[in-house]
Design brief:
The chain has about 120 residues and is mostly helical. Helices cover about 60% and strands about 0% of the residues. It has helices at about 10-30, 40-65, 70-80, 105-115.
């Protein structure tokens, strides 16, 4: 066997430069060009989709809330708890549950509450 005689004084800086180049390339891809992993893209898309669904359902939720027979009592409870998680107790569960889900969506609760407790604008 022969000794290959690697000159580490030359190879070592090259290895460090390669590692630094890879790190810089990853940063550029991520922050400058917007590259992201598939799982991150999925999470981002799901979040945006949920926001769009909530924005679409909130006006209907507010309208149905106003048409409830005990809307005045529920509204008093809602106004008292508007900034609390207890605001969900003023709503029937089916109004604040997203289609296909079995749990209360607090984003929908907040959006519907915001529509219900905002002051009504008068036409001038």
């Amino acid at each position: 066997m022969q000794d290959l005689g690697i000159n580490w004084r030359i190879v070592k800086p090259s290895l460090w430069a390669g590692a630094g180049g890879m790190a810089l390339g990853a940063l550029l891809l991520t922050y400058l060009f917007g590259f992201m992993s598939p799982s991150t893209a999925e999470k981002l898309a799901a979040r945006k989709s949920d926001k769009a669904v909530v924005a679409a359902l909130a006006p209907g939720c507010a309208e149905e809330f106003r048409s409830l027979p005990d809307a005045d009592d529920r509204m008093a409870k809602l106004v008292a708890n508007r900034d609390s998680y207890l605001a969900r107790e003023a709503f029937p569960k089916e109004l604040i549950t997203l289609p296909g889900k079995s749990y209360v969506d607090y984003s929908l609760v907040r959006a519907c509450t915001a529509l219900l407790v905002k002051p009504k604008q008068t036409e001038s």
